[in-house]
Write a structure and sequence with these properties.
Layout (H helix, E strand, L loop, with lengths): L11 E12 L8 E6 L5 E6 L4 H4 L8 E9 L7 E3 L5 E5 L9 H9 L9 E10 L14 E11 L7 E6 L4 H18 L4 E4 L2 H23 L8 H10 L2 E4 H9 L4 H7 L18 H7 L16 H13 L6 H27 L3 H13 L1
Parallel strand pairs: 3-5, 7-10, 10-11
Antiparallel strand pairs: 1-2, 1-4, 2-3, 4-5, 4-6, 7-8, 8-9
Helix pairs in contact: 3-4, 3-5, 4-5, 6-11, 9-10
InterPro entries: RNaseH-like_sf, RNaseH_sf
Keywords: Plasmid
GO molecular function: nucleic acid binding
């Protein structure tokens, strides 16, 4: 079975590929990019130009296989792809018989070792409380924040839809934060995986998870008022180290000039449901606290923003600690926060399919514009 590793630049290739998705670049020199995977999960980009009518008119279906005949190998800056060649054709095809791994398959796996589809993957996104005035707030300083909740996602295989959840701390104070981290460890134990996806996790999520584990356990131990959480810091560090961490922001920043997660999702036409704060009966005026924030240019923005979360989180914790979890206000806050956090988790799995194409996306545009 021909695989991506067999593709040679400017040489004809017959290959069977599974369609994943398409994107339309801003360059008029390229009609679109269609993204595929070979039999071993290695990603292949099909560059479609405006005069490739048979490719433009083809109705691609996600998860369906296609047999390409006589295509042109298109290797550029290390990215594997194909494009039109005179006499080339494409037709729907049955899924290939994968058989046992051959030398070619092993070479393909080595080419992109972190993108093998036969392993389970998880995604993590933290939301925090701020503990200092905004005038001195440094979000990189773990002393200035506390963990409020963790968005988590699990995908046993890329062909399955991801399962998402939100883990909330059960109480205010350092003991509640330790309980959240223990809950996170139990969740990881119940959802074993090989790859961990984050967006800006290398600089934000993972360092804060480890530092807050240290700070919270030390604070609890010093107080002597709660059971000891000895070993929690090491458990968090060792558990996170057991995964292959893929920070999707690292590749995106190199390719697209430091986009936010929302900007990146818009670029690749990934629709994510927005969370509208006025749609929930929580009783709080979001515009009021936005006015007090240093950056309040989006005071009237109808959707929930990241800077709103610490405020909502404070109110959630207050109601929770007072036993008001059955009130309409608490349930509305809980629903708002769950939706906001989960919609930051699910797209990470979609971006994981596209991540190998970030560089190819830019390279093809540059090459087309220079021709």
């Amino acid at each position: 079975m021909t695989t991506a590793v067999d593709i040679v630049h400017n040489e004809p290739i017959d290959i069977r590929l599974k369609y994943r998705r398409s994107t339309t670049p801003s360059s008029s020199s390229i009609e679109c990019f269609a993204y595929f995977q070979d039999v071993r999960g290695v990603f292949v980009t099909l560059t479609i130009f405006p005069n490739n009518d048979y490719l433009i008119e083809h109705e691609w279906e996600d998860g369906h296989w296609y047999q390409f005949e006589g295509m042109n190998g298109n290797i550029y800056d290390g990215e594997i792809g194909i494009k039109h060649r005179d006499g080339a054709s494409v037709a729907g095809a049955a899924p290939p018989d994968q058989g046992s791994p051959s030398d070619g398959h092993r070479a393909a796996d080595e080419y992109r070792p972190n993108l093998h589809v036969d392993t389970a993957r998880i995604a993590v996104d933290i939301e925090v409380l701020t503990t200092v005035p905004e005038s001195v707030l440094d979000l990189d300083d773990s002393e200035h924040i506390e963990l409020f909740c963790l968005g988590v996602g699990y995908q046993p295989d890329p062909s399955y839809p991801p399962i998402t959840d939100v883990l909330f701390r059960p109480a205010d104070g350092p003991a509640g934060e330790c309980q959240l981290l223990e809950q996170f460890c139990r969740w990881l134990d119940d959802h074993p995986g090989q790859t961990l996806f984050t967006y800006c996790g290398k600089q934000f999520d993972l360092p804060h998870l480890q530092e807050r584990a240290r700070i919270a356990t030390e604070t609890v131990t010093a107080s002597g008022t709660h059971p000891s959480y000895e070993g929690l810091e090491d458990r968090i560090t060792e558990t996170l180290a057991s995964y292959t961490h893929v920070d999707l922001a690292e590749t995106a920043f190199k390719a697209f000039d430091y986009p936010s997660l929302d900007d990146l999702l818009n670029r690749f036409n990934i629709d994510v449901p927005q969370t509208y704060w006025a749609a929930y009966n929580h009783g709080f005026d979001v515009q009021e606290w936005r006015t007090e924030q240093q950056e309040h240019t989006s005071r009237a923005e109808p959707t929930v923003m990241g800077s709103d979360i610490p405020q909502f989180a404070d109110h959630w914790l207050t109601l929770h600690d007072h036993g008001a979890t059955e009130t309409c206000r608490f349930r509305s806050l809980d629903a708002l926060l769950r939706k906001y956090v989960e919609t930051d988790i699910t797209p990470l799995f979609e971006l994981s399919h596209i991540q190998p194409f970030f560089g190819n996306y830019q390279n093809e545009i540059k090459r087309a514009e220079s021709d």
